[in-house]
Amino acid sequence: MVDTINWRALQAEGQTYAERQITEAAAQDSISRDFYGAALIAMRSTQQDELHPVIGEFGQTRYTTQQGLKAACHAREDVMAVLIIQQAVLRRLQGIRIMAWVCLAILCYIAVRIS
User: Which residues cross the membrane (predicted)?
Assistant: First the structure.
């Protein structure tokens, strides 16, 4: 007799493994931390909103109508991750702009002192 596979436990184990991999990848540098942190937030958000497919008794996955409507309303995890990453990039660009103005002021001061 063939033992049945517990698909929900297998999916939970996969989710735990994915979270661990993302957490380890996020520890590298600030850009990786922002990127993988956004991916982790998006993944947890979809889990909380129950947007992952439902697993049937034979392991097949399907989406319910309610999940489709929720996914459409929340714009799925990929859009959220892109926006979170974009915000981090824009903050860095703003910091670089401030540094450029400071460098320009210092260069002007040096040019005035030399001449």
Answer: 95-112
- Rounded Cα distance between 44 and 61, Å, is 19
Structure tokens at 59: 């392991």
* SS3 call for 61: strand
Q: Give the predicted TM-score (pTM) of the model.
A: 0.51
Count of C-beta atoms within a 10 Å radius of residue 44: 13
Helices (H) and strands (E) counted in the chain, each on its own, are: 4, 2
The backbone torsions φ and ψ at residue 62, rounded to the nearest 5 degrees and listed phi first, read -155, 155
CB neighbours (10 Å) of residue 64? 11
Q: What is the pLDDT of residues 25-80, one digit of tens each?
A: 777 777 777 777 777 777 777 777 776 677 766 767 777 777 777 776 666 666 77
Q: Give the C-alpha separation, 26 to 38, whole Å.
A: 10
Q: Both tokens of residue 85?
A: 């990453």
Distance CA 25, CA 112 (A): 48
